[in-house]
Amino acid sequence: MMAAKPIPESDLAAILAATSELWETLRGRSIFMTGCTGTFGAWLLESLSYINRALDLRASAVVLSRRPEAFRAKMPHLFADDLITMHAGDARDFSFPAGEFPFIICGATEASAKQQAEQPVEMLSTILRGTERTLQFAAQSGCKRLLLTSSGAVYGRQPSDLVHLPESYTGAPDSTDFNSVYAEGKRASELMCAVYGRQYGFTTVFSRAYAIGGPHLPLDMHFALGNFIRDALAGGPIRIGGDGTPTRSYQYGGDLAAWLWTMLFRAPDRAAYNTGSGESLSILQLAQAVRDALDPSIAIDVAKEPVAGAPVSRYVPSVEKAERELGLRNIVPLDEIIRRTARWYGWQG
Q1: CB–CB of 147/105 below 8 Å?
Q2: Whose CA is closest to 137, among 5, 34, 18?
Q3: pTM score of the predicted model
Q4: How confident is the model at residue 81 (pLDDT cuts 50, 70, 90)?
Q5: Measuring CA to CA, how many Å separate 345 from each of 217, 219, 224, 292?
Q6: What is the fold of 9-216+251-278+318-332?
Q7: How far apart are CA 208 and CA 46, in angstroms?
């Protein structure tokens, strides 16, 4: 496995600057984290490692991983100090590490379209049993605050006439649709967290995440931004498999990390916040933004013609609640998200 490059120090310093008032509560204490092998986890772990050293917090993190050595090979720069201890185990049945952990981050599976299509039972089991096992650990480990990394998928299909989806929206996925495995798993996980938190006396907070960009964004999965950057770095054309009309929005990984740390340390009990960007654009506009940022000469191929009068597919959050209640803002604009992602992958522009 090829080792991933570190996140640039300038990004980690920006996360510290945005969260500097939060960290005294972690001084000398421990945090337990699951689901840290993906993009979200990389940003959280790298920022935590950096901030721990910068502020001399003398905190510690225990990170659950099914394959610790593989994770170490992927991100060796995270293990240069004594902050991070890997704990081998499956999220569904891991042995409980010793000690007290007042803070827990539960993110027991990635949003993998491939796994949902090919191994839906495995995905559902990992989400549900993994969340419950983490909650069982929280109940006996001195947990005070737990953050669940949930998803905007919990709302189900966004109505085409609702441009920004608020946390108050009461829609839901179709519980009889095989494609709802990830969404329903996350939805049930939120309920489990609320129930365990109430019974065992710890605060639970929910991040309903949307699309992100930046270092660690895969270029070979089902993420349009990553695929378009891959196409541009290869010299084009940028290929759109559909008609380019669905609308999405993109948050930088560094902004996301600052939002998640703020939620973990400051959000009220059982509060759910959309984490993402409210600045929407179509998939075609995204492809054009990638082209303009990286190589204005390359072509864009759109596979299908739009159907006149067809409803627009939307997946865009309202982030007004996070802005109003926690003072959160997105700092990095889309064109810079694109450039920073490409540079992390070796683009020299």
Answers
A1: yes
A2: 34
A3: 0.96
A4: confident
A5: 10, 9, 16, 18
A6: Rossmann fold (3.40.50)
A7: 21
